[in-house]
Amino acid sequence: MRRFWIVAIVLLWSAVAVIAQECPTLEQAAVGETRAWCAGIASGEVCYGNSIVSAELASFAPDNMSFSAPSDTLALTDVTSLSTAIGDSLYGVALMQTIGYPVDSWQPQEITLVLLGDVILNNTAQEGVTVATNTTTITAAEGANVRTGTTTEFRVLTALFQGDIVKITGRLDDGSWLRVQLPDGRTGWIIATAVDDNLSQLPVVDVDSPQPELLYAPYTSFSLQTATVDNRCGQAWESGILLQSPQDTPVRLLVNNRFLLISGTIFLQAPLDTAFDIFVIDGFAVLDDIQVEEGYQAIISTEIDDTGNVLPAIISSYDFARMAHLPTEILPRYTYIGIDLSTIITPAPTIDRSPIIDTLATDSCVLTTGASGANLRSGPGSEFPIRGVLAFRETAHPIGRITGSDGGIWWELAQNIWISASVVVTGGDCAAVPQSQRVPNPPPPATPEN
Q1: Across 249-330, where does the E strand assignment appear?
Q2: Residue 210 and residue 208: Cα distance in Å, rounded?
Q3: Could you tell me if 234 and 307 lie in one domain?
Q4: Which residues of the chain have pLDDT under 70?
């Protein structure tokens, strides 16, 4: 019996050792392969990054299209649904490039979506799929009035100027007037001479034809379903979608029938058909006029309460450990994982005394700063960007340390949150703080230190 238990224990530890060795190697390798295979992806395409990935094609898609191996690409307008999955020694990753629109113009903005793990994504956008459009510019020097009908007697909705981008959704049979959609979804008409473009492929419509709803480019309006809390180890990420938009121009999305405005990088999960969760990695998101800042999450429901209203979103700072290992390196713009600094910093005491004066040598390491405070940087050196400040007598517990680019010791408070040992006072057993293993490289441009 004793020999049996010894063998069982050896086998158990062997299995644990294999998992420790493989995790998160599988996920990291899948992302690395995707970066290599999909390096040449163009706007309006989806790329097969790493097995397992599958796509449902539109009925009008060409019959000879292939999407079964890494580096295969498809036009987004030909794909009605996309899914990735996790299998034995397999981890699905897909990468797509699309465009999004701001709320007040049709100026296209590049958006990147990365499907990670166990994800089902259904395209619900109309543009280029169920609604034919032409995006062009006003060329007439006098611009164009957008009217409610097809003569100059109809009311003017707004005025467009030379160079303005306009989205045309139809034309009169004789081609004299063009139906346009404004960025806010309203439909109007402009005289055809205001633009200089071949519009013969647009559908023939009249003032009584059904008007399209507010247009979204492919995969900026979608339904989403994901697994959640399915990471195999603490260093792996959960299934979901990484999405990155420009930081300076918010763009609109429609996710599971909820309007969302984003500027920056977000992570999306939808463990239920009636809800989704948004984690703001950098920048911000706006939902129902509520702005969600980086380091925070919004738990969003489409369920209706007893009064007939949609349940409000629940906003809170997210668990940084859940987001810390997301593979943001696959995105076109490098980003740091956002964090609510209040989750790692203890406020200064209300009394006039040092917050570490009673710390014993055997206590866990704690640090504080002087009257001028100290910068928190994204890496161990003054050349890294400032991500916040540790104010006078605030405290924090370092999780790692390393020799920085200046030759001095730097303390790691959280991933990509560092502070120089030269500007802090420490207490407790700081010799026990381990060497940091994950250090950003290369550093961003230099900025001066306090």
Answers
A1: 251-255, 258-269, 275-287, 290-293, 296-301, 314-317
A2: 7
A3: yes
A4: 1-22, 273-274, 441-450
